[in-house]
Please model this.
Amino acid sequence: MSRWGMVIDLDKCTGCGACITACKEENNVPYVSPDEAAQGRALSWMTIVTEIVGEYPNVRAKYIPRLCMHCDDPPCTKVCPVRATYVSDEGIVAQIYPRCIGCRYCMAACPYTVKVFNWYEPEWTEGMERVHNPDVSLRPRGVVEKCTFCHHRLQKAREKVRMEGREFVDGEYNTACAEVCPTKSIVFGDLADQNSQVSHLARSTRAFRLLDDLGTEPKVYYLTEGEKHV
Amino acid sequence: MFDATVTSGAEFKDAALLRPIEETSRNFYYVVAGLSLVVLIAAVMFVRQVWFGLGVTGMNQPVTWGFYIVNFVFFIGISHAGTLISAILRLSKAEWRRPITRMAEVITAIVLAIGGLHPIIDLGRPDRVLNVFTSGRLQSPLLWDVVSISAYFTASTVYLYVPLIPDIAILRDRGTKPEWLYAFLSWGWQGTPHQHKVLERAINILMVMVIPIAISVHTVISYIFSMTLQPGWHSTIFGPYFVVGAIFSGIAALLIVMIVFRRLFHFEAYLKEIHFAYLGNLLLVMSLLWFYFTFSEYLTGFFGHEPFEMKVFWYKFTGPYAPYFWVMVSCNFLIPLSLLTFKKRNIIPKVLTASIAVVIGMWLERLIIVVPTLANTHLPSPVGIYIPSLVEWSLFLGGVAAFALGFAFFSKFFPLISIWEIQEGRERSVADVTERLQQYLPTESGGNVEVLSV
Model:
């Protein structure tokens, strides 16, 4: 059984934000007006947390791309009253949009605050509906959504493999953010496969996970920044 | 056996209790119209929210819960006044309970109905609320709430209705309109000894049952918060802390209602200063208990000095929520303490002021529990400011108005003070209490020997 996971190398990340855009495009994530965004209603499955380290003149910004950690023991799925969010067999934390009642308990319970809510009915600029990704369903207002590790890509890749009658190859199923990252700081793959790039990196001595001590067992790993920043 | 068949004429001493039902002043209609308007505005605002989405509120990411959840916890807390206080007073055979229990029970029934609606108002998809039954997960604390609140609502409405039956029969016998209503609701009550026996047994069973249910309700509400890993919420004392707060705000609400109706309906002969003195003492005890819990909760957090916990701690103590926090401390502790410790003179104004302070303070406490934890996320977050919108304010006012309206309607159909229990007290209590007292007193002829032989 696969265990999908991700490694993000903070040494390589430039904070360019390409992953954010790619994710929005890929997953039909609606955009909101600047006013709404300023109020904290921006919908983004991927965000970059910026931390300013040090004091002038020795300041620098630290960028941490943040997405759903796809925890093995997620605090969000435990509290859902209707099983509209659950962990799949392959470790992906999924959302069931048609069942979600919009109580936002999962959002309140998530220590990584990666879940977002459709405060209004999504509005698309005229013509946008023609460029929606047909593989990803549009969400109605009033439901919670978040990163799915581009789950639809897994389904596609798996079908292709079955058609061609061969084994899954590392890298065949990749997320949009990893694909687009110009510095290749995001690596996605099967953590259960000992030979995959992602599992090599996850075993690195530089690897750590966010809020590891909470015991949520995230499947998104980070590689600490190296000495060149010290 | 006392005679409950006296329902009219000179022998009927409690006509004052029926006056609100039989006579309605013009002011009453004005009040009802005003309250209905507020409720109507709230209803329109709610429809608007369903139409456009929860974006019309002030909630955001990360503060995903706001006024609705605060008011949910607050209203359900008030509901503990009622049934729990009344059950405890009945169970402990406190004779002074007689004019109080009915009002306490009415508070519970009305406030519980209003509070129970709040989680539904808060839903992004209220149209899907029945998913809770079709695909509910009993592992979720929200489902525990659904279960315990519906149990409490059922138990407390039955507990309100059962002791109401003899009073409804009085109204039926007096021919009060609408006659069909009283004939139907009185369930053929004739006041026979057998009926009294059955009634008493029913009340006894209900009052024992209602206490654990009431405690479970607010415990489970606290579990919504404490079952998460969030700093400021993940605390083991939240269950009892919430129950204490609930009873505390409940008693305060009960006192306000008692004082208001004493004034409006001239119940001075029934609700005497001693009732306010006793309930005031209870309020004072709860205030001390509340302080004890609050102190333990924050001292533990502070002493541990865990960074995330401290972020929430300073947010409340010196940060943006400091004004609310310190007003809460004064409303819940300093004001009741200073007013209720010495209340020989001016007891009613003092108790009223303290009660209003406590209700405000307890509402603030709910706000202080819900919002700061959400606003202080583990990971740095761009925003985290919550400003309730007009919609949320009007729904809050609508809830309060619906409570007053519910009370106004109840008072026009049923007596707010239990008539038969007052009659029973007048005719039987003195003998009962004397007899009971005899049992407490040491036996005259060598008590020690008696005890040993048992």
User: Anything to note?
Assistant: Residues 4-229 of chain A form a domain with the Alpha-Beta Plaits fold (CATH 3.30.70.20). Chain A touches chain B through 48 residues (CB under 8 Å). Chain A has one domain: 4-229.
